[in-house]
């Protein structure tokens, strides 16, 4: 049986067919594909539903304020994606009369959309014959063909994998094939401990047949960054600043921040001595993109109102009893929630 037929047979029985963006609406498919970049389906679903409710059309997104978009994106991570969809919506509104392009070369020119995402959008929306090559699909192909990835650059490996996936994609059912490949990669052919015995490809997969133990796609070692948040409080309000000091939190609001070098050993040592600081938040580690953030905080309480008057759009007093529509990174949201419970 052909590779593609095995995949399609599996899809008809086990494939995911009721995801909230599977409506052949190219706008919603595009939003979902951007949200799904480096993020699991179960994490994306609640964010997607809220996003769809607030921005039901491309036009509504194009005319939205970036702070509203970042507010809905808060906690999903990789915030450059939110900036990219806003830029893309504006470009489509101005350049394409508000209609998402169907030409793959035009789609690939849009911010944050590469060949794989472009293929996914057009395949899922119109069943066009374009393949998807995300990390899940790459892992299936590498294992199935027992490709030795040692001594290959990313470009060399991608060239091999694109050639393979383009050979396998069926002419008439690319939508189902692409969905099945991504499902199998995320559910069965997982990075660790794959469930090979229930994979539709296991009878012809070299990884399974020959029990090959080869180097997997290696994730880059995460950089460690020490952060000290200055939590400045006046009554129920906390000072937040819109900053770009951390690239992954572009245009988000967070506490005044100080950086310092850190190691696991230092972290544990500082954690034991934390009682020497004026803090009500225990230190914690936050994992984001390719960094580990070792987060500490100390609290400064202001009693005189006149001190807080020098405020502008980039610097706000955030009332924890009145939610405000601004983008806030996940660890800051976590701290604000804890402060609210202790208020």
Characterization of this structure:
With 343 residues, the chain is of the alpha+beta class. It folds into 2 domains: 3-132 and 148-188, Orthogonal Bundle (Endonuclease III, domain 1), CATH 1.10.340; 223-342, Nucleoside Triphosphate Pyrophosphohydrolase (Alpha-Beta Complex), CATH 3.90.79.10. 43% of the residues lie in helices and 14% in strands. The chain is built from 14 helices and 7 strands. Strand 2 and strand 3 (252-254) form a beta hairpin. The model has no long low-confidence stretch (mean pLDDT 89). Residues 35-187 form the HhH-GPD domain. Adenine glycosylase active on G-A mispairs. MutY also corrects error-prone DNA synthesis past GO lesions which are due to the oxidatively damaged form of guanine: 7,8-dihydro-8-oxoguanine (8-oxo-dGTP). InterPro entries: A/G_AdeGlyc_MutY, DNA_glycosylase, Endonuclease-III-like_CS2, HhH-GPD_domain, HhH_base_excis_C, HhH_motif, MIG/MutY. It comes from Buchnera aphidicola (Cinara laricifoliae).
